[in-house]
Amino acid sequence: MQLLNDEYFMQQALKEAQAAYEADEVPVGAVVVLNNTIIARGHNQVELLNDSTAHAEIIALTSAYSSLGSKYLPDACLYVTVEPCIMCCGAIYWGKIGRIVYGASDEKNGYQHLTKDNWPFHPKTELVKGVLEAECAFLMKSFFRSKR
After folding, report:
1. pLDDT tens for the chain, residues 1 to 148
2. What is the helix (H) or strand (E) element at residue 146, kind and residue range?
3. Residue 62: CB partners within 8 Å, gap ≥ 6?
4. How far apart are alpha carbons 74 and 55 in whole angstroms?
5. Which of 47, 57, 83, 135 is catalytic?
6. pTM here?
7. Which residues contact 90 (CB under 8 A, 6 or more apart)?
8. At CB < 8 A and 24+ separation, what contacts does 104-112 make?
């Protein structure tokens, strides 16, 4: 049953990524889920805001904190279409997110190539990789192919 939930919420994150794509932003989308309900959404807005920190994860987390009036989300799950970068890992770490689910790996900018064997998230955080990976990767590849 968890896999079906993960796929559903990743589809919602993909809708956010599509909105970024249509705005000519790198197509990354994120949703924050608490008690099986989406409490926040975000997609990359780096170009729109002229802010290199305006990643999907940061936008979604900031919205979640604001809506809950809390600076920690230990019972929440962050769904993101692409592996978080090291900056976003820091934000996720400090927010004490309970669970992270991402779609496509990012060999150039993802945390894995920078951290090697170091765990960049809170010690209690659960990580799930590869949910709807092909769909998430396709959107990124399409975007960058159109730029060449």
Report:
1. 455 599 999 999 999 999 999 999 999 999 999 999 999 999 999 999 999 999 999 999 999 999 999 999 999 999 999 999 989 999 999 999 999 999 999 888 877 765 656 778 888 899 999 999 999 999 999 998 887 7
2. helix 133-147
3. 42
4. 21
5. 57
6. 0.92
7. 120
8. 104/133, 104/136, 104/137, 104/140, 105/129, 105/130, 105/133, 106/82, 109/85, 110/82, 110/83, 110/84, 110/85, 111/83, 111/84, 111/85, 111/86, 112/83
Count CB-CB contacts under 10 A for residue 34.
16
Give which of 68, 23, 67 is closest to 45, Cα–Cα.
23
* pLDDT at residue 108, rounded to an integer: 80
Q: Which residue has the tokens 């496509």?
A: 104
Cα–Cα distance, 27 to 45 (Å, whole number): 10
3-class secondary structure, 118: coil
Decide: 41 and 64 in contact? Cβ < 8 Å: no
Residue of 123, 34, 143, 36 lying closest to 81 (CA atoms): 143
Q: What are the structure tokens assigned to 45, written together?
A: 């807005």
57 is catalytic: yes
